[in-house]
Amino acid sequence: MMMNLKFVILLFLLVVLVLGVAYVYLNPLPRFKEGFCDSMTERFVSEHFKSPDSHLVATDGLQYQQPSITHGRTDIVSLTPWLAPIVWEGTFNPVLLDSVYQKKNISIAVTVFAVGKYIMFMKDFLETAEQHFFVGFRVHVHVFTDRPNEVPKVKMADGRELSVHSVPNSKRWQEISARRMEMIQKLIEEKLKGDVDYIFCLDVDSKFHGRWGTESLGELVAVIHPGYYRDHRGRFPYERRSASRAYMAPDEGDFYYCGGAFGGLLKEVHQLAQTCRKNFEDDAKEGIEAAWQEESHLNRYMWINKPSKVLSPEYLWQDFKPRNPEILIIRFSGVVKNYNDIRPN
How far apart are CA 269 and CA 75, in angstroms? Predict the structure, then answer.
């Protein structure tokens, strides 16, 4: 009886095997068309991993000076403790970087606020941006102003454009400053999602004097303030009241970052703007206004959320300051002005 049972099981397995081979023979697995696997891989990567700041592919045949890891600038530090690059003149190759990002066909948005008398700086800002800011790339400047009819007409190169957004004025310059994060957040949500790779938020009362380009790209980008980069953190003008959500303790802080220049990938700047706006509004409900409005909240944010790239003070100098020896070039700089003449209070 046991022998008959074993025979039946073996016979059953043999039949299953024969039927399986016959099915495969009569119904072969579909062959992948040439390139099918590659296209599937590209689709998967584009949907889940693609970032314009990753997988940097250089132009084949491009020639440039050999880089060195033993020779270079010794008068500055070019790396943060969390291993983010600090960008100075002489630490990057502009030809190589431009060739990498031109392949990606990136687009850059710029926000600039020209409320009240600050409209007087708009012409110089736009004209010098055409000469120095991401030249040869797609750039869309978004101007926020209460005087849309006074925005100057500046000839822009192909692939570059300007949009004007009307906003109300205010009797206090602090309120104008504080509302910038809200407007940046809404612009990203309502106008820019899906159409822009990077965004930079810049002060209008400044001019470009030198190249500002692909070397500045990163996930979250901060600019070191020219007034405090040689100082101990204890002298930084952080918000020091513990009741504020922008509070920085005496032993906290890496650098003091500018509120007048920051940027990065769209999603990163959206998160920054959204967080700073909420913290500012929650402070306001409790009757608190941080020492330097959105700049204070930005510094708090970047203490916790470390920037992936830090730009040296070359990227926002001040015209009234003499150039220090380590500043080999001034790329962007605040113009000399009388605040009593242009601020509402």
Answer: 31
DSSP per position, 215-249: GG--SEEEEE-TTTTTS-GGGS--B--TTSTTB--
| CA Rg value for the chain | 28
Q: How far apart are CA 30 and CA 21, in angstroms?
A: 16
pTM for the model = 0.84
Sheet with 160-166: strands ordered across: 86-87, 309-311, 220-224, 257-265, 198-203, 107-113, 138-145, 160-166
For residue 239, give the nearest of 316, 180, 186, 178 by alpha carbon: 178
Name the β-bridge partners of 310: 86, 222
Instruction: Map tokens 């590659």 to a residue.
Output: 38
The identity of residue 74, as a single letter, is T
Q: Which helix (H) or strand (E) holds 160?
A: strand 160-166
Instruction: Fill in the DSSP letter of residue 191.
Output: I
The Cα 253–Cα 249 span in angstroms is 8
Distances (CA, A) of 117 to 9, 335, 344: 93, 14, 9
**Do 132 and 331 meet the contact criterion of CB atoms below 8 Å apart?**
yes
Is residue 77 a contact partner of residue 87, using CB atoms and an 8 Å limit? no
Catalytically annotated residues: 295
Dump pLDDT digits (tens) for 227-280. 999 999 999 999 999 999 999 999 999 999 999 999 999 999 999 999 999 999
